[in-house]
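User:
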Amino acid sequence: MTKPSRRQFLTAGGAALASARVPRPASAASDGLAEFRYCLNMATLQGYKLDVVQLVEVAAKAGYQAIEPWVSLINTYVKGGGSLPDLRKRIADQGLTVESAIAFPQWMVDDPAKRADGLEQARRDMDVVARIGGKRIAAPPAGANSGAEIGLLQVAERYRALLELGDQMGVVPELEFWGTSVNLNRLSQAAFVAMETGHPKACVLADVFHLYKGGSGFSGLRMLSGDALQVFHLNDFPATPPRETIADRDRVYPGDGIAPMNQILAELHRVNPILVLSLELFNPAYWKGDPLETARTGLAKMRQAVQKAGTP
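Assistant: Predicted structure:
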């Protein structure tokens, strides 16, 4: 593999990623960090058991600009007789874009047969995402959460293979780290792996919760560039339970926890002022009442956090 220079990954530029970057909005809002784009990760409403069409409608009515669907939801829609071209049109007609998608192929595991199956699953997932107009897909360490640690150079080789598959499919896999995993649990590890691929579209998908859970902290965000960080999962975490036992279900709306949200958003704006902020929560306490109101509350909390952070 040809290694990119530190400058290539950690500084702005990267003309090779221009087509994958989020377009600059035509008009700016009055928020301090006006150019962020607001996206709804569909997990935030998963407890309502809505189908993907209903979730698209909720996201649009709530005022989001983009969605981050789970591929499993789309597959369920297709199995029920739904059409991917129709879904793509519905999304576009609602004024939404598909900035990212969530799937869990085991592309990283040591077992060669499982890894081959994982790449084939990734191909199918990317095809689905591409057919609804999606740009990116998460590439977490699925299947490698426990057991032996995998060397980061080996992970880089495997992520490179996934990126090359993405080139064929027209979808960019974003290297996602999980603070709960034995492998790839810190921002620094994900950045190293992405750099070592030597691939111009290598990028990282970061998350407030996983930065905290894995012990990365938040200062390292400033080391990235807009090409290296294009989508960011926005959420917050409470003071209790402690970091050692906190779980996905404990995530709270941005600004309702103890995360240094002003610092995080200011760093993100310096790195990429047109970053996609995707609200990703798994809190069952929010799955009550009207899903539209829950979605609206989430967007309002995001905007309030951004406004409070102010222009760096």
